[in-house]
Design brief:
Helix content: under 10%
Number of strands: 23
Mean pLDDT: 86
Largest sheet: 10 strands, antiparallel
Structural class: mainly beta
Strand content: over 45%
Low-confidence stretches: none
Radius of gyration: 31 Å
Order of helices and strands: EEHEEEEEEEEEEEEEEEEEEEEE
Length: about 270
């Protein structure tokens, strides 16, 4: 075949990854009389486990079943990993979707997109970090959520209904830890029994003695026993906080009966 410019060659429209060959110069081999130009298949280049030791820059879509890059990887639009990939560092300016595992040796930078954990039960694994002196049960951060909810006042004997001027609830969930902020102002409530603040966004963990404390900011219009102060807790396996009171000098904790009207705001944290 006569020599021709690459631009003059016919475009390849349907590549055969196994049989189609590309010439390559093997600089590590002592050239024989015929030279050291060898052949390599497309499949050799695009193997199931490619390894790159330098920097990889991609401006389009990258979908990897399994890849190991010891340099830096910069992806312009989308990085989709369906298998396990190990990168020294990765910069993603688009979206990163991780199907199974992505291990980054030094740093990961997202400039214009999100990391999406695509499979239930997966998350960020901190098992490589030093554990505390307690009994560790998990080092996987697999959930983050924030939003609003509508708290309510209920009676333990009869739930009842109230007329609300304020029903404010916000929450943040990090892993199994739930943080809530509540403000309630009500009147004309028909409930009976002890007072409960219900409809928390998640049910607390069902574990023996797993009570969580509530920090009351302000309370008014609710009748406490004389000389007592208000406190509250979230019991196990519940989506409510129970109001109680205790004598200022100490003593037993007793429930507080629901009031027709009143207001309260508090913060609480518990495990779901």
């Amino acid at each position: 075949m006569a020599d021709a410019k690459i631009s003059a060659l016919t475009n390849l429209t349907a590549a055969d990854a196994i049989n189609d060959m590309i010439p390559i110069v093997d600089v590590s081999d002592t050239p024989p009389a015929s030279g050291n130009t060898k052949r390599i298949s497309i499949n050799n280049i695009l193997s199931s486990s490619p390894t790159a030791s330098g920097a990889l820059t991609v401006t389009g879509l990258v979908t990897a079943g399994s890849a190991t890059i010891t340099g830096a990887a910069t992806v312009g639009t989308t990085l989709g990993v369906t298998g396990a990939s190990t990168l020294a560092s990765v910069g993603v300016t688009g979206a990163a979707t991780i199907g199974t595992t992505l291990v980054v040796g030094t740093n990961a930078t997202l400039t214009n997109g999100n990391v999406i954990i695509g499979t239930s039960g997966k998350g960020i694994d901190f098992s490589a970090t030093t554990s505390g002196s307690g009994t560790m049960t998990s080092e996987l951060l697999n959930d983050y959520e924030e939003g609003t909810f509508t708290p309510t006042v209920s009676g333990s004997s009869s739930v009842g209904v109230g007329v609300y001027s304020v029903q404010y609830g916000r929450y943040t969930k990090i892993g199994r830890n739930v943080f809530v902020q509540v403000y309630l102002d009500w009147s004309a409530h028909t409930g009976t029994g002890s007072m409960q603040f219900t409809n928390l966004p998640f049910t607390s963990e069902n574990v023996s003695n797993g009570y969580s404390s509530v920090a009351i900011g302000e309370i008014s219009g609710i009748a406490l026993t004389a000389g007592n102060y208000a406190l509250a807790s979230i019991p196990p396996n519940a989506s409510r906080a129970n109001l109680a009171n205790r004598k200022s000098g100490g003593g037993s904790v007793t429930a507080v009966n629901i009031d027709v009207s009143g207001y309260i705001f508090f913060n609480a944290s518990y495990q779901a």
